[in-house]
Amino acid sequence: MIMKEKITVGLVGFGKRGKSLLKNILIPMTSMDIEIKGVCDLYEDRARFAADYVRDAIGIEPFCTTDYRDITSMDGLDAVIIMSAWESHIPVALDAMKSGKYVGFEVGGGYSLDDCWKLVHVSEDTGMPCMLFENCCYGRREMMVLNMVKLGIFGDIMHCSGGYHHDLRREISTGEENRHYRLRNYLNRNCENYPTHELGPIAQVLDINKGNRMISLTSSSSRSQGLHDYIIANKGADSPLAGVTFAQGDVVTTTIKCAKGQTIVLTLDTTLPRAYSRGFTVHGTKGMYAEDTDSIFIDGVHNSFDVKWKEQWGNASQYEEEYDHPVWKEYKKQVVGGHEGMDWLVFRAFVESVKAGTQTPIDVYDTAALMCISALSEESIACGSIPVPIPDFTNGRWMERHDSIQSK
Amino acid sequence: MIMKEKITVGLVGFGKRGKSLLKNILIPMTSMDIEIKGVCDLYEDRARFAADYVRDAIGIEPFCTTDYRDITSMDGLDAVIIMSAWESHIPVALDAMKSGKYVGFEVGGGYSLDDCWKLVHVSEDTGMPCMLFENCCYGRREMMVLNMVKLGIFGDIMHCSGGYHHDLRREISTGEENRHYRLRNYLNRNCENYPTHELGPIAQVLDINKGNRMISLTSSSSRSQGLHDYIIANKGADSPLAGVTFAQGDVVTTTIKCAKGQTIVLTLDTTLPRAYSRGFTVHGTKGMYAEDTDSIFIDGVHNSFDVKWKEQWGNASQYEEEYDHPVWKEYKKQVVGGHEGMDWLVFRAFVESVKAGTQTPIDVYDTAALMCISALSEESIACGSIPVPIPDFTNGRWMERHDSIQSK
Known about the structure:
By secondary structure, chain A is an alpha/beta fold.
């Protein structure tokens, strides 16, 4: 297959995230190798905004619609990029693959195993790749730690943890006026609703779908209190949301077991006050990394009983020169703009795959495995934290699959 | 009841921990209000060492035996203090209570629910208190955070975590020559074998047995690799332990649910390289504390999106002057010696209870609730991480019980 010089894309979804990606990632890429042929949002004002924004930025007005099927069925499109509400990712993706288009979509959890299987089946049947834009897989620290893991610095990895520790009380409680999908999800569901930061990077560390797989999980939820208290304190007892009951517990802990004996602990922690963290931790037989202290411990270099361990807080930066991932070393050379590195890198990886006509680095099996955690967590919590099996979306091929996403 | 000026004690168990407590805590207390009447260890050399040590230190040689029943049945003893192997804590405690003596014993997990219930029944039948010496309940930071929780600084507490993150590979792998009980436990069992640091302090934060209780848990274990690799690297492939299989997984994650809707995550992490931590975290609707960064986040004082959060690492020390627990403020005035504050304080609390003839601050219900986690974790892991119920050792009285251990 001949490498394309430029690809044509249709974009779906222009809420806060979609607008930000349009401005910071997609418009800048039009001067490189993408052509924005169509834009869509369920809300006309958002679709219109996007069309106008593209026209003002590059002088060409894209096709504009409120029906995503106009985009997925559009002739001459190479790829559809989906940045809309969580619930729409899979339906839009299925339609786009059926129309022979590459699909990339923003992160979010799945709602049922059935939806995740459909993603796999349609991708297999159509031969079209489908990539979750898990930007944290391209985070600088995540990639450095992955690089160190692959070099054996931490030994055999036995345990990883991560989470989405992000105070979203304001965003959720203004969901009505901002038409934000999180509100309805927090009102109605109780689960690990946003597992893929930091499960994406952990899946790479543990070779998930490439020699290892996740086999089961248990999930437990605290009760819901943070949003209610926030609404009373900030919007008053007369606010429309003051009397409602949120289904979503404040903290959800999910423990995953892997075929090769590792455990993964995921935490969803979005409705209590705190500083942002993804709580990334990788622990092996020779050392560990912990994001919260941004520190690296290497057996023999550091002393387990060193009472001055606090002096090592933040020491991970000392390892950047030697161990920054090749992708980041390259990126740092090229970059002049101010865009977030990991968003740029995850979109570049997708675009390069579409141009080359190759598989995406995060493929449909990875996408399904990461997204199914939400549905399974919901099931486990609903049934009193019972262990539930995690499907093998590769149907056994994980034992022989290779080529970890970032080893190339 | 008249307050005793001095109490008589018999001591059982002089391994590493017993020797250290004898030297640093018990001998210094002989000049205050305790009299060491008897010492015991299963191993004659250790018992002899203790008797000689006491004689050399205070000029009076205590009764010395290798049979703990000689101590538990000894006339004129007020209390028996047990510092022996985990498996012996409950049998010795039961005998001592049956002989009308107060019992205090070192931390460790239980082996069966039956043993924990026996502790409760015998204490109820004999009227003799039984206290787990959970020293971390008296840690300075733990008490400061507890104080802040009781003052409402963190709002309603929704989630806590803690663990025993302590590289014990050397201690465990030299267990044969050092006659250490950990070795046989790591060879034969797979569970959260040491839950009470940090569950003790968390139980106080969450009012366990005093208005709240733990209702169920799930537990998951990684495979065992760290000890094997350590033994091969440090003792060679010919070492007697090189070929054995350790039952104990490297990292065990246990998630506990409480009657009032909180969750607790406990981690056992003792066979991989790392710096020591008890990973204490308390997260409420108004803020949080995290031991690993020794930091406090208070809603409204700190900004969730503050990109300079790293500058707040270690900020907990700024809260000491205002929020140090009264027990610690008092202790700091008195202390001149170099002994570990929390060991001193937990032993003082026990001795004061014996002198006054009152209930111990950590009572038999607390002791049973903390210890049962090991047995239940073992069951959950054995059955594929199923949720298992945690008994209500108070038989319903938790709803009306008050007086949290450190509120007096």
